[in-house]
Amino acid sequence: MKTEALKKLLVANRGEIALRIIRSARVMGLKTVAVFSEADAAMAHVAEADEARLIGPAQAARSYLNIAAILEAAKTSGADAIHPGYGFLSERPEFARAVAEAGLIFVGPPAEVMAAIGDKVAARRVAINAGVPVVPGSEVADPASARAFALEAGLPILVKASAGGGGRGMRIVEREADLEAALGAASREAEAAFGDGRIFLEKYLARPRHIEVQLLGDRYGKIVALGERECSIQRRHQKIIEESPSPAVGERMRARMVEAAIRLARAVAYRNAGTVEFLLDGDNFYFLEVNARLQVEHPITEIRFGYDLVSEQLKLAAGEPAADPPSPRGHAIECRIYAEDAEHDFRPATGKVLHFRQPGGPGVRLDTFLGPGVEISAHYDGLLAKLICTGEDREQARRRTILALDEFALLGVTNTAAFLREVVASEAFARADLSTHFIEENFPHWHCGDDGAEAALIAAALVAERVLGADRVAPQAEARAGASAASAPRSPWALLGDFRLGRR
């Protein structure tokens, strides 16, 4: 192994992905440096690393997005490499360039590669030149040109931000009368979110599936693919459930998509980990974008291939050639558990963790930073945990996911575990009738249950009694909790499983 070039790794991120990276680095014998904002001083990734450096106040713009502060932390700690994780600075060419100019190793693609494919319009041009199919679109988005494109392609059309992602700066236009307002709104939102108000247009596909191909590239020109993932189940264009392999992709389609992804990656001399994303519409697929970083959903690929993608990233960054991956096995499903209120349009939630129980058993993995007393603030992304379940086939993985979500218990922070459980248990999911509109088609107005709120309050009160040292619970409280669980089987109390106060 040629990782002698790497001795100490600074992780320029927080939460579960920072923990994930730190653990792989330590297995490889690397020293690790965590960075943290004032709000994150007590977070698990800070304690897990060999060293930690404060980089600023709670606001991300003054801490996790502060390039100068992160480089100073690397310098004072003696780190020789920086891993950006995902989100924050992970896809900013200026950050990759600054790291390289500081004489450090950036664990990701070079700045010039990011610049070539990070902008969606530029990436479309790369795909077209590489012979990869793209959705019909227009780079010109002034009102007159937009009306002409809408007339040519037919409504509805999609207005999209050239930079960024996650559904921000995106509008669906179904009536010509709404077109000009949608252009302005999308541009303003993109400017506010990404500092770049440029937009472009695409033909809107009615019920596509979202498929992505995982790639690894080395500095010697070799590109390897590690299968595909299906990411069709989304809310507000943000993925919430992913699986691998896609139940809609057969061997012939898989070969075509992998070949197209590798062709596009070679066109920009791609290096390190990255993902090429496609929209699948019937028998046709179209290039969507490239994510020039590690994906949130990378664990389902790791489990199927028996591969540590973070370790592979570090090896590639140190100059090792890309290794041919093992053959994949089984099926894997990931559920992203967010601090959100699924009953109220996924409204962000905050709070302090009063009680937390992890699911377990064969084929169950939970990537998280949660623990009793952890504060969930409004400063950062609301991802709390990633539940990854695997099985010999899709149905076994699906059943394990349902049982694991039943076992998952979190009090003190409103979260989406109960909602995800119902999605995975649904008939539509079981028969793999998936599209990017799955949630609005199948769960347009989801509610946890009539007695869910009461059960949650009772459960929280019982946990508080345990914290205060109570040895038993008043019989009437136990009876009320049991009645709530019986009348609302999907309530938060039901998700606590056999947890009761006073048991030993």
Structural description of this entry:
There is one protein chain. The chain is of the alpha+beta class. The chain has four domains: 3-107, Rossmann fold; 136-203, 2-Layer Sandwich (Dna Ligase, domain 1), CATH 3.30.1490; 209-442, D-amino Acid Aminotransferase, Chain A, domain 1 (2-Layer Sandwich); 452-495, no CATH class. Helices cover 36% and strands 24% of the residues. An eight-stranded antiparallel beta sheet has the order 14-13-10-11-12-15-22-20, sandwiched between helices. The radius of gyration is 23 Å and the shape is globular.
Whole-angstrom Rg: 23 Å
Low-confidence stretches: 468-504
Oligomer: single chain
Strand order of the largest sheet: 14-13-10-11-12-15-22-20
The CATH superfamily of the largest domain appears as ATP-grasp fold, B domain
Largest sheet entry: 8 strands, antiparallel
Query: Roughly how much helix do the residues carry, as a percent range?
Result: 25-40%
- The end-to-end distance, rounded to whole angstroms, is 49 Å
Going by helix content, strand content and strand pairing, the class is: alpha+beta
The figure for the number of domains is 4
- Overall form: globular
- Tell me the CATH architecture of the largest domain: 2-Layer Sandwich
CATH class of the largest domain: Alpha Beta
- Approximate strand percentage: 15-25%
Instruction: Count helical runs.
Output: 18
